[in-house]
């Protein structure tokens, strides 16, 4: 088992990515700290399943953009399941936000959910990981950390901020045996068509802009996270791994693979 007795903190457990991480990493012997907006009610069957498989699970409902709540969460979780070995930050709040019309409240809501929470969780997890001289931090960001969406600049800004947070943390925490990496996620099979925009056609027929015309799944994301969380990724630090099937390499003047 690649994660036997390791404690994994998943920041958004109620999401499709959160449940995929939960099930895949449980098969490798992990225990869990889960932040759940529903307090666990929306994922009750999933919790029962992994607990029957032998995983210990601590569930909380904290505002991860507030350090006092995160510190309380870590203190309580340590008593229940232990200190964190792997942090998976998978917050992904999207709100329509154009530069010329976005209000401050919307901008801050997206930045707090996606970026500030990453910073605060990294501080809290990093303290525990430094004490053990080991750990893994995985941020699920987006291809839009690099490429504009055309419909939510606040989202792109928040993911870009996490990208640079990861690089800074990789330098500092790397000195204590902690690996810090990002997964830049593209469109997935389970997601609704993302980022409708009058400015760009990037998501028009987006399925066919993946070279093989086959979208990835949350299962693919969980497999990559497992690798980054395992000892096999010992020498991977400060990396941005694009998981988009080649979507961003699409050329508009090439024929798409439509069957």
Task: Explain the overall architecture.
The mean pLDDT is 94. The protein has helices spanning 16-26, 44-52, 67-80, 104-132, 153-173, 218-229, and strands spanning 7-10, 31-35, 57-60, 86-89, 135-142, 178-185, 240-243. It has one domain: Rossmann fold. The chain has a 7-stranded parallel sheet with strand order 3-2-1-4-5-6-7, sandwiched between helices. Helix 1 (16-26) crosses helix 6, helix 3 (67-80) packs parallel to helix 4 and helix 4 runs parallel beside helix 5 (153-173). The protein is globular. By secondary structure, it is of the alpha/beta class. InterPro entries: NAD(P)-bd_dom_sf (IPR036291), Sc_DH/Rdtase_CS (IPR020904), SDR_fam (IPR002347). This is SDR family oxidoreductase. Belongs to the short-chain dehydrogenases/reductases (SDR) family. One of its GO terms (molecular function) is oxidoreductase activity, acting on the CH-OH group of donors, NAD or NADP as acceptor.
Distance between the ends = 41 Å
Number of strands: 7
Please report which band the strand proportion falls in: under 5%, 5-15%, 15-25%, 25-35%, 35-45% or over 45%: 5-15%
Low-confidence stretches: none
Write out the strand line-up for the largest beta sheet, numbering strands in chain order: 3-2-1-4-5-6-7
Would you tell me which CATH topology applies?
Rossmann fold
CATH superfamily: NAD(P)-binding Rossmann-like Domain
Biggest β-sheet, characterized?
7 strands, parallel
N-to-C order of helices and strands: EHEHEHEHEHEHE
At CATH's second level, what is the architecture? 3-Layer(aba) Sandwich
CATH class call: Alpha Beta
């Amino acid at each position: 088992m690649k994660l036997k007795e390791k404690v994994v903190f998943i920041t958004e457990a109620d999401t499709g990515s959160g449940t995929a991480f939960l099930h895949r990493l449980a098969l490798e012997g992990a225990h869990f700290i889960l932040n759940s907006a529903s307090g666990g009610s929306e994922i009750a069957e999933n919790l029962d399943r992994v607990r029957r498989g032998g995983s210990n699970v601590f569930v909380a409902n904290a505002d991860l953009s507030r350090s006092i709540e995160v510190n309380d969460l870590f203190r309580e979780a340590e008593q229940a399941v232990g200190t964190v070995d792997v942090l998976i930050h998978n917050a992904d709040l999207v709100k329509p936000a154009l530069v010329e019309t976005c209000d401050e409240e919307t901008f801050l809501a997206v930045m707090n959910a996606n970026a500030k929470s990453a910073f605060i969780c990294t501080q809290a997890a990093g303290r525990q990981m430094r004490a053990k001289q080991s750990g893994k931090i995985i941020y699920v960001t987006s291809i839009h950390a690099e490429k504009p969406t055309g419909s939510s600049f606040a989202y792109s800004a928040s993911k870009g901020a996490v990208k640079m947070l990861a690089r800074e943390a990789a330098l500092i925490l790397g000195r204590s045996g902690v690996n810090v990496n990002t997964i830049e996620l593209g469109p997935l099979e389970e997601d609704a068509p993302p980022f409708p925009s009058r400015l760009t056609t990037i998501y028009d027929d987006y399925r066919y802009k993946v070279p093989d015309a086959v979208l990835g799944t949350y299962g693919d994301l969980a497999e990559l996270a497992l690798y980054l969380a395992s000892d096999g990724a010992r020498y991977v630090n400060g990396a941005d791994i694009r998981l988009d099937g080649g979507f961003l390499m699409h050329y508009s003047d090439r024929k798409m693979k439509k069957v």
